[in-house]
Amino acid sequence: MIHLDKNGHTEEFYYCNDCKRETNHIAVKHHTTRRVYTVKEGLREEVFTGVIVKCEGCEYLSFVKNGFSETVNNGKAISTGTYSYRYPEETRNYREYKNIVNIPPDIANLYYDTVFCLNHNKLLFCAMGLRSLIEAICKDKMPNVSSELFLDKRIDEMCAGRVLSKNHADTLHQLRFMGNVAVHELAIPERKEIETAINIVEHTIENLYGVIAEVSQKKSLK
Ligand SMILES: [Zn+2]
What we know:
- The chain is α+β, with helices and mostly antiparallel strands.
- It is built from 5 helices and 7 strands; from the N terminus they run E-E-E-E-E-E-H-H-H-H-H-E.
- The radius of gyration is 24 Å and the shape is elongated.
- 18% of the residues are buried.
């Protein structure tokens, strides 16, 4: 929760997405709204405070919202709640996007969307994205192999065509299996498993397309 003094000033330590460290933030502007209305349980009061805050390290602006609500019935509080969130949300645990270039746009978009899902903790979609990435790579590298063939056969074809090494094909089979389980059984994989899978896919893209893959310093794609 952000705390403002009676003059509306604050000095709080927050993580800054831009300079990527905890810095002192000051309130630039704030506003509080209070509303009271009737619900079937009684009378509900809500108080929200929105504060635009500025990083004192790099002057990056973000927003903090605090909220409080209480429902009263016959003078007795029957429920209360508080919350606080920041926008944009903190990216300290985000995986950096590789700055991949010169690869087919479909594959690049699938890669970015897959990492986006990881960063927003949508692990099931992330596993589905990984499977689709393998499909897209197969289609691009072996356009003459029918897309009606099961994916395992298409990976084998890439191996037979010397597009992939045997070890690499075996690894992609494991990823394919994880994607299948996600798609057919809606089984959510572990985050660590997904992170390892993304490492492998990044390595595969680098191997197959020979792209320069540098870690982006301040990538904000979405
Ligand atoms: Zn900053």
